[in-house]
């Protein structure tokens, strides 16, 4: 068996989610190849070659892949699926990031196989567990596809070491340009805080924050803790903060060492995104809020008093 | 312009589902069913495109709404008709279909209807797959604008601003194209009573998977469905000072 992992990257660095995805591949077993599709992504390929357990890195460096548009990358991956490792790849894995979710179903459809989304565990080479219904049920899914196409939920797998490997780097001469889409622009949030899905501590705010300006209390607390700041869907819906801060079923999935939920009631869809956190703290003035049912430590208090106090005491 | 909107009947988002005792699935008997929330956003976006076409004095955009599912999905199609869709198609199937099977059926409908734009929700809140739109785009050979927060049609292209992990990305797609909706694209309206009455008279065509000539065979099999490991409630602390003490000395996370 040979497994192809699609690297998550920005042409400069390998995103941490790639390490969790390689970990899932290692649990399946077999040789692991990593595909770096991009433009001017030499540094990414070098970094990918150092990831523990990777046997080979394939680099498809072409203008058509510069922004990893799915219309162009999916045909590349589908073509590699048949050729890779001599007899073709047994599995194709990508992190369940916005990029992985965008590209991989397109690959699966091109290969005429069903995809298995957001696995949280590997039971065997063909059987996996994944949450459904916002994590209120866990399905065990078995695939008989010749190529198993899978996205990996990073929080389900401890990352492999970023260093220690010495894989061969091989160029892939290919240029799929479907001509149906083009990149116009990107606005990336600039922040000195850790990335939400990789942070050890996450402080999140909900509707109880009342407005976007009040999130400054959470930013101040987060900066003291070295934490990332997230939000519930209600806070995003109300326009307090942008969508890339959303934690939940339809936002980001996090599992930090410490999750502090502030003014969040604890709707099903929010719990789906954070209930695997090691320690959960809830601060809410409504003692009946469902968030207290999953919190290790609950504090019934006015957040506008409790948060500044917390910031002082830690 | 013709816009095709695909919608799904799912368990209402407020319902906390329970796993069946025999681990064959979740218990949906006597549970409230609704239109998937992201599909409501898809319908709303199509209605706004239609309103814009009328406001600008162009030929009114036609909205065709389609659902693949059981006969009861007619309820959700009627809701979409009440919200402003012109006609509806139900591809009736009592089976539990995979995203790929649904995408193949939708591709057959796309071939038949030839829309310039297809709008779907990014994810259904039951299976949580987030696959169908991307798969339909692959099968149709169209460009895809997934997780859309803004959609602007001009001439024969559509500019789609997408929610991505670090912020927002804008892509330009040639029409016909596929768009999947994210949360902030719009705020869906409610259907008015007169429109609900009018929707009862709008055309609703029922097709079978056989009539569309599509195989819905799957490479995936659900072996079992279990309840997740329960997380037990912890303790209530009385003060911020006590909280900090517990986090430092008991949980050891600070």
What would you say this structure looks like, in words?
The complex is a heterodimer of chains A (314) and B (254). Helices cover 26% and strands 28% of the residues of chain A. Chain A is an alpha/beta fold and 314 residues long. In chain A, strands 5-9-4-1-2-3-10 form a seven-stranded parallel beta sheet, with helices on both faces. Chain A is elongated and about 60 Å long. With 254 residues, chain B is an alpha/beta fold. Chain B has a single domain (2-250), classed as Rossmann fold (3-Layer(aba) Sandwich), CATH 3.40.50. Chain B has helices at 37-55, 74-83, 99-113, 132-140, 193-199, 240-249; strands spanning 2-7, 9-11, 33-35, 62-69, 87-92, 117-121, 143-154, 157-164, 167-174, 177-181, 204-208, 220-226, 235-237. In chain B, the strands form two sheets. A nine-stranded mixed beta sheet of chain B has the order 9-8-7-10-6-1-4-5-11, with helices on both faces. In chain B, helix 2 packs across helix 5 and helix 3 crosses helix 4 (132-140). Chains A and B meet through helix 3, helix 4, strand 5, strand 7 and strand 8 of A and helix 3, helix 4, strand 7, strand 8 and strand 9 of B.
Q: How is this structure best summarized?
A:
The complex is a heterodimer of chains A (314) and B (254). Chain A is an alpha/beta fold. Chain A has helices spanning 17-28, 42-49, 70-83, 98-111, 215-225, 233-237, 268-274, 303-313, and strands spanning 2-6, 31-38, 56-61, 91-95, 115-119, 121-124, 127-132, 137-143, 148-152, 168-171, 181-188, 201-205, 228-231, 258-262, 279-284, 297-300.
